[in-house]
Amino acid sequence: MKIDFGGMFFHAPGSSIPSEKLLKDMSIPDTYFVRQFPYHFKDNLQFSDDDAVLESLKEYKRLGGGTVVEVSTVGLQRDVERCAKLGEKSGLNVIMGTGYYVNSMQKEATRKFTVESMQTFMSDELLNGFHGFEGKYYPGIVGEMGVTAPMAEWEVNHLRAAGGLHEVEGIKNVPITIHPGRAPESPFEIMRILTEAGARPERVIMGHMDRTIHNYDELVRLADEWKCFIQYDLFGVETSHYQMANCFYPSDGERLNRLKHLMDNGFEDKLLIGHDIHTKHRLEKYGGHGYAHLLRVVKGDALSVVGVSEEQWNKLGVINPQKILQF
Ligand SMILES: CC(=O)NCCS(=O)(=O)O
Prior knowledge:
This protein is of the alpha/beta class. The chain is 40% helix and 9% strand. The chain has 12 helices and 7 strands. Helix 6 (115-128) packs across helix 7 (153-164) and helix 7 crosses helix 8 (186-196). It is globular, with a radius of gyration of 20 Å. The model has no long low-confidence stretch (mean pLDDT 93).
């Protein structure tokens, strides 16, 4: 079979990539399998190619990006110095987090930590700087605090530790960002535990909403009952098959529809967006969308297809992040 589709050429918006390169890269093997099963490939899970990250960050900056929030916490082998260097080289602000990822990713010794010791670890880093970089580099956020469903007892404890930070002098306003369990009731349970421990719900970000709550009424209920920030941070993942749970990943279009629904219900000041790039295949070098995708593609669709106004888009990408990140 042969088709000449050349008459249908359309330039990609804002792209610095020559169109010949796009064609050549279509020969990359395994693309289909990596997209469907990104967590199957061990090399894909080693997010450690600094050149590929830097190239992607520079493209994000070129299209108008200014800040990256990098929320790898204990359990994800966070690397403060590396992130600081990438920030310097790319010219972007990089905000990093303190805290703990999910129970299954922890060392046995970390799982023995108490609420008190975890709270001390986090407050110490927030007030004095990352351990090993005291006085030089400071966290700007707590989390992502990793939670599974059902919740492990240790995760209940690290949530209590994080919630209690809002009662500590000097950090009462610190933003706390959450990786919820993959069940629709998880965000509600997390908010209850955090607030019982002292957290101010309006200083909490509920992340990964893309794959967590799929019912529109329940989304509105979460925003209404808890007044936390609601974050769609898996933009660019356009594969509906989801390896990690028995549900579909929404498309970018559906993410925008859900955001618009929340806007229409009065929550446009409580919404955040992002890419949560944590596997290699999502970087341009490996055939992915990279950090510039929201600015390159999603913004145009939000405005022209979904009916998001310029003012609302500015809230998603600039005003709301400024509000939650300042403390
Ligand atoms: C880094 C991380 O945990 N990202 C979320 C991936 S998930 O599959 O959507 O939970």
